[in-house]
Amino acid sequence: MKKNRFFLLQLFLPVFCSISLIQGTKSQTSFQLGVNQPAELKVDAGTDVSIDVGKNTILGGSPTASGGTGNLAYLWLPSEYLNDKTLSNPTAQPPGNVTFNVKVSDERGCTAVDHILVTVIGGTYVGEAEENTLLRIYPNPTSGTFTIGIKQVKSTEFQIALINMAGHVVYQNVIQSTGSSVSADVDISGLSKGIYFLRINGDSEYICRQIILK
Q1: Is residue 16's pLDDT more than 80?
Q2: Structural domains in the chain?
Q3: What is the mean pLDDT of the chain?
Q4: What is the pLDDT of residue 179?
């Protein structure tokens, strides 16, 4: 009598697959494939919120992120008015309207991004509700060049900075106002495609907007 033979082979792959090879007396081969795929990385920056000037609010959802592999790393931008940009739920106290963006990364390098608008009643920024008349940034998304236009400004000089998702300044410039308005063209065609944060500082104005380079 020919004895049955059993052969088991397990392979540990990056996607956590296990493969079993079973060989019987008739040389039939069967595969058993089990996939242990981590849950998709998801992020929730929270619901847009309005606060009175001088007050604070907590950003992020409950939880801010889920899924992914291993420990999660958080990066909130802009970080000027946060108690800690690396927390899952930082406290924000901006003097005016700001869109905060959060990037979450897991141990395998997967990332997810979301944003939340904090509207400050009585604040000093150019308000979101006034954006159509006071502030224009176009086109956005952009393929490389966009224009900044601001009306009814009080500052005579503005510092422009573009910040990438890693928190690094990748573009800087200074522009002067003409009367009560500002207009400037910004060329970022040499940068990698992705999401950036435009920060405009003046003596009396502070503006932060998201720029998408496609």
Answers
A1: no
A2: 1-37 (no CATH), 39-125 (2.60.40.10), 126-214 (2.60.40.3080)
A3: 80
A4: 78
What is the Cβ-side half-sphere exposure of residue 59, based on CA atoms within 13 angstroms? Answer: 33
Rounded Cα distance between 104 and 44, Å, is 10
Cα distances (angstroms) measured from residue 152 to each of 50, 59, 109: 24, 31, 44
pTM above threshold 0.85 = no
pLDDT one-digit tens code per residue, 32-81: 666 667 789 999 999 999 998 889 999 999 999 999 999 999 999 888 88
Contact 182, 153 (CB under 8 A): yes
Residue 127: what pLDDT?
46
Tokens describing residue 140: 């956005």
Give the C-alpha separation, 93 to 56, whole Å. Answer: 4
Is 122 exposed, middle or buried, given 0-12, 13-18 or 19+ CB atoms closer than 10 A?
Answer: exposed
CA-wise closest residue to 195 among 97, 119, 102: 102
Q: Which residues pair with 197 in a beta bridge?
A: 163, 210
Q: Which of 134, 138, 128, 126 minimizes the C-alpha distance to 151? A: 134
Q: Phi and psi dihedrals of 161, rounded to 5?
A: -140, 140
In the prediction, which pLDDT does 178 show?
79
